[in-house]
Amino acid sequence: MPIILGNIVAVSKEELVPHFFKSESTLYSNIQRYKDKPYGIKRVMSGGNGRQLLVDFDSLAGDIRDALHDPRKVDHILEQYYSVDPDATRYFSIYKFADGTYLKLDHQERYIINASVLKAALGLRDDRLNEWKSKGRSKVGLYNTIKADVLSFNDVLRKKYKVEHDLPTSSRFTATLNDFETRINDSFNYESLISKKHRNINSRKVNDSTMKLLNDMFADKIRKPTAKEIHEQYEGFISGYIEVVNNKTGELYSPKGYKSLSVSTVTNYLNRWENKLATHQKRSDDRQINMGKFKPYYSFEMPRFAGSMISIDDRQPPFKNLDGKRVWFYLAVDVGSRAITCAVHGDTKEGIILEFYRQMVRNYTYWGLCLPAELECEMSLNSSYKDTILKEGVMFDYVKMEANNARGKYIERVNEELRYRMEKGREGWLARPKALSEANQPGVDIEKVPRIPYKQIVNDCLLDIDKWNNAEHPTESGVSKWDFFLERQHPSLKAINYEAILPHIGIRTPSSCKVGNIRLNNGLCLIGDQGAVAKGERLIQVMKQIEGEDIDVYWLDDDQGEVLKAFAYVDGQCICELVKKPRPVRARIERTAADDLAESLLAAYTNTVDGFAKRQRDDLDGVVILREDAKPLKHQIFSQQKQYKYEDREPVVMPQIADVDDFDDDFGTYTSVRQSLKNRF
């Protein structure tokens, strides 16, 4: 719209191009052509440096002036008050109904025009009321004049702005104006202009109860009816010759209140996303297909370092061995480098999961690397380890288990690449009968596909892994996946926690410690400390705990069957690391530097124990035990009793007595000493 600058009316470039001039260059050329002439288009202000190009309105052609409208000429009283209300534009553009839907654009435009006209009408009303009061006129009939002005203003809106309002012209106009004027949060009541017909579901044929009935009928996973069959059943239901029973409540539906529907209406409603989301998943048990159709998926940036995350899963290469079975593989892919870092195989996936984690520790130990910081895996096989090795902080700092969610694991993409890019061309390859791509569907009967020996399948798959790892990294030109894996390990990775891992995946062997030697794997081990033979105070501390004791050794072998890592435990408590006992060559002439180092380690080990023993001996002082005389016992019954001792003696001959009567004693007289009861008291 033209603007007034003092006594000049100016028009911006945006109002002229492309409505009246095809391009900016056409406008500029016209300005230059009439620059020095007394007629023609003239420039008021040049553009640039934050200014906009302004053209003199009066210098434009008559048809352009008529189309743009001269703001100095007022054809209607409301033009002095009318302008598009920015608050109304903002309000209606972001307004949402209770179900979260927005207003359609045409409805937004209509409500913005209505609000702008009502705002102009309020300004006109206030000025007119003041004028009438100054003239002593009553305000009776004021709103009728405002209503008439608003009604006639539609002609101006159509002519100059190509729009029109649809405000009521009856007695409801005053109520509409008053409702709009009611302030809500220091703003006009814009919501009062929104029609109540929006979201009015009462007048719809397909209301919530009808939609639920259609969905319940369509969700039959046994018969799987079509939309046309559902329409026939529904029409039969409302006609009364079909009864419908709710399986959950046993309720018999009443046809009262349900309206007749067309086939297209039933089809359209059943095909709505919010209905398919439930019914299609109810009708199908294929979780992967349902997730692909209805479940939103995450999108992540790829890790920039190797070792940040590892993705693992099982797979069956598409080949049958000679007995008609397929080989199981369990793979690990470093997500940052895309390199496959661990692969084990077997007849069943349940039988290889433990060996898989053992092999992963072997590989990373052999390469001198830390285990990855994070693991993503499927839940079915790994859930049994969630409280042991897959507890966060044991093998991995972070663990993410996906329950039957193929899209949630990066390794699924690698498995697809192996299947279709590397294995597809080999003999015996089995196509998927339901593959989406026609090129991946079987071309011959699957039973006629040749079978491959087990060993050949395994060797070919391992060769594919090597080819995969040696291929170029997808985002790093000139760098293979394997080089990326070895050279760009994350700097914050932590050392392998063998002490916590081995009790769960290691081999348990009962043993004992005798003079610092522990038998293990048909050999001898010594007490270790951080991968080396222990000595000094650490050795003595451990010897105090396990010397002469029975211990449990949890250990892991390497690919050659030798001890890779071993730790000693007593009653579930980790005591120390065990290292293989060095064995230098006995003959000096055959010794190497390694033998000399081994002998020095043995000497340090032995000298530590000898030195401790000597210190212990030196700390011993001789003592004399002094005993005090025992205090006499109060009752010495048995200790003081004299014992009879038998001695051999000569017999003594007793003198013979001639006759008993020779004795003077009178043995015939007896005198009682018993007292009577009377004499006792």
Characterization of this structure:
- The chain is an alpha+beta fold and about 675 residues long.
- The protein has five domains: about 70 residues, Arc Repressor Mutant, subunit A, CATH 1.10.10; about 110 residues, no CATH class; about 90 residues; about 180 residues, Nucleotidyltransferase, domain 5 (2-Layer Sandwich), CATH 3.30.420; about 110 residues, no CATH class.
- The protein has 21 helices and 16 strands.
- It has a six-stranded antiparallel β-barrel with strand order 10-11-12-16-15-14. It has a five-stranded mixed sheet with strand order 7-6-5-8-9, with helices on both faces.
- α5 packs across α6.
- The mean pLDDT is about 85.
Task: Produce a short descriptive summary.
The chain has 681 residues and is α+β, with helices and mostly antiparallel strands.
Q: Outline, from the CA principal axes?
A: elongated
Based on DSSP secondary structure assignment, what is the total number of beta strands? 16
Main beta-sheet annotation: 6 strands, antiparallel, barrel
CATH secondary-structure class of the largest domain: Alpha Beta
SSE-based structural type: alpha+beta
The multimeric state of the shown protein is single chain
Global Rg: 52 Å
Mean pLDDT: 86
CATH topology of the largest domain: Nucleotidyltransferase, domain 5
Number of helices: 21
From the coordinates shown, what is the CATH architecture of the largest domain? 2-Layer Sandwich
What percentage of the residues does DSSP assign to strands (E)?
A: 5-15%
Spatial order of the strands forming the largest sheet = 10-11-12-16-15-14
Please mark out the parts with pLDDT under 50 across 5 or more consecutive residues, or reply none: none
Overall number of structural domains = 5
- Please give the share of residues in helix: 25-40%
How far from one another are the termini?
151 Å
